[in-house]
Amino acid sequence: xxxxxxxxxxxxxxxxxxxxxxxxxxxxxxxxxxxxxxxxxxxxxxxxxxxxxxxxxxxxxxxxxxxxxxxxxxxxxxxxxxxxxxxxxx
Length: 90
Known about the structure:
Layout: H1 2-24, H2 28-37, H3 45-58, H4 75-79
Helix pairs in contact: 2-3
């Protein structure tokens, strides 16, 4: 009986952890690239990550290298605009 409870607990814990990562980081490729891109962000770090992940997903996982500039590496990322006509992507 104890083994069954331990196994059930382990399985439930694994499922909850997996779900957390699925919902918190829609694409791990984007997440890693955006962590680098936003590591020295002047604006709010969380806002930078949110916008970067949106742009990355819309642009087939393309995020420019480095923390600033280099947007010519990803024309889609470069050309996305917000509602004010400004660059959407950090």
